[in-house]
Amino acid sequence: MGKTSGKNLLSSELLYKQIFRPILAKDDGIDAEQLTQIALNSLKQASLYKKWPGISHALNNLAKELALEDKRLEQKLFGCHFKNPVGLAAGFDKNGIAASIWNNFGFGFAEIGTVTWHAQEGNPKPRLFRLSKEKAALNRMGFNNDGATTMKKTLERQQLQPPGNRPCIIGLNLGKSKVTPLNQAADDYAASLETLAHFADYVVINVSSPNTPGLRKLQDSKQLRQLIQRLRRDPGCPPLLVKIAPDLNNLEIDGLAKVAFEEGLAGIIAVNTSLNKFGLDKRVIKQTGRSLDQEEGGLSGRPLRTRATDIIKRLRKNTGEELTLIGVGGIDSPQSAWERITAGASLVQIYTGWIFEGPKLVPNIIDGLRYQLDYHGFKDISEAIGSEVPWI
Known about the structure:
The protein is an alpha/beta fold. It is built from twelve helices and 15 strands. The protein is globular and about 50 Å long.
């Protein structure tokens, strides 16, 4: 396959190799959540002061290294123009602190959140663990975030361009506040939507995190219909998508696809983190001394790759081209991104893979997709979606 020039990636890759890769090579050491927060603090300052000469220069250089363009990778989906199909998954930028600069990292879109109406601290720490050998992570964060009202102020301070005029599509991932009873969930989601809708190009209904008690019950067809219909009553509601769990059985997946189609959703994001340990049940977490089957939380990263791909294939089979599918879970290479696209995903998202592989992953995926288009004779990415052609 084609490769992105090492020269182009020298600055960002050198920084990653010298500082982050040695830390990420082992499970213990700097706490995973603490390391994430260090990175987020730097990103927050860069986003707030992006017009300052020094920071502007650094961001421009970053974009030159990481942001690759190719018209063949552009798509218009649910009214949004995606410059490329690679996005940042929800969960990293929970409070939207870097919403205005994700394009500089090469992303075609970024999903901020999960945000809840009420600010909440999340679950007790430690709650995020690296599984370095497996290129995976276990998290039980519990939707820790500053709340919708504070996110509104955060986004206002960054002076975001309005939807449709941005270099990077911004998605908004909404969750239920832990203190809100399940029978009041729809109003809880709606309060966040009403506060933040005008910032978002699209909105995701997160009913699939395993770390908020009872949340996954909202994947029930009746509950999900009611939630969608409640959010649709907001006159400023952007295109709506739903994010589903990898632990659903085939009948449940089919039922969700049916609801999404009948309710006219813009798409489905598959998948969230998994309660399945994928054969790693006895893998010991060094920080706690307990095995994975004794730990609460959802698994992300490479172990999800096969299951997440299979779910995209099933959704594609059942929905055809009527619904946009976004593939996430275990994507950490150009090949895994290509597999998800040819299985039926129009877009892909990365998070755990991006952490382990570093900033080069985005341009490497873009370069790999371009090579595959050339090799298979596709004129653009839309011809590859659902084609099931192999990675060469």
